[in-house]
Design brief:
With 201 residues, the protein is an alpha/beta fold. The protein contains eight helices and seven strands; from the N terminus they run βααβαβαβαβαβαβα. The longest helix is centred in the last third of the chain and has 18 residues, at 145-162.
Length: 201
């Protein structure tokens, strides 16, 4: 089985993830796929479950990772062991390369078990008041100003056409530039939600 487990996205979700089932899964799994091994090790250690970190097999799958290495790991490990799949923060497979591992498991007829956890994207959408019946995740928006203008124009067109909520993420050091561009180009009758420190103090 592949267990899709959530890492906390703030103190509140850390408390909510402190469940018996979550702890049982983490205690029993010795093989992991994650975006960042350091984040996973720190989280497991913080739970004080008696798990020996040095006995875990952890491989990273992020924008620098090799798909062939992960697929080989899946093929060899799932024959006799469960695998835990986690994202850097939040639910794996949502805005996360782990979706490819889940797709591989389905194709090769392994069971996929999602365990309840927090997703920053869905929490942001839930709290926004925007259209939760029709929404699109756009990932990171383009860095170049002309490409950014085109992307924003396309997103606005989707909103005006059928009220499709547009979700995207950005790194802190580019936030102001993006916000200024949105204010100069987009706003009017369109609502904008800024979600940050979700589940923080």
């Amino acid at each position: 089985n592949i267990y899709c487990l959530s890492l906390p996205i703030g103190p509140k979700s850390s408390d909510e993830l402190d469940s018996t089932r979550n702890k049982e899964q983490i205690t029993s799994i010795k093989f992991w796929i994650t975006e960042n091994a350091k984040t996973l090790r720190r989280y497991i250690s913080s739970l004080k479950l008696g798990v020996r970190i040095d006995e875990l097999t952890i491989i990273e799958w992020n924008k620098h990772g090799e798909q062939t290495e992960v697929y080989s790991f899946l093929k060899e490990t799932l024959r006799s062991h469960d695998i835990g799949l986690v994202s850097d923060a939040g639910m794996p497979g949502i805005a996360d390369p782990g979706a490819l591992a889940v797709a591989w498991a389905h194709v090769n007829e392994y069971r996929v078990v999602p365990v309840v956890g927090a997703s920053s994207l869905f929490l942001a959408l839930c709290a926004s008041g925007l259209n939760g019946q029709s929404f699109k995740f756009n990932g990171y928006l383009p860095v170049g100003i002309q490409d950014l203008k085109k992307k924003l124009a396309a997103m606005v067109a989707d909103v005006k056409k059928d009220n499709t909520a547009q979700l995207f993420i950005e790194t802190p050091y580019r936030n102001k530039k993006l916000f200024d561009e949105i204010l100069s180009q987009v706003l009017g009758s369109i609502s904008l939600t800024i979600a940050f420190d979700i589940h923080g103090n």
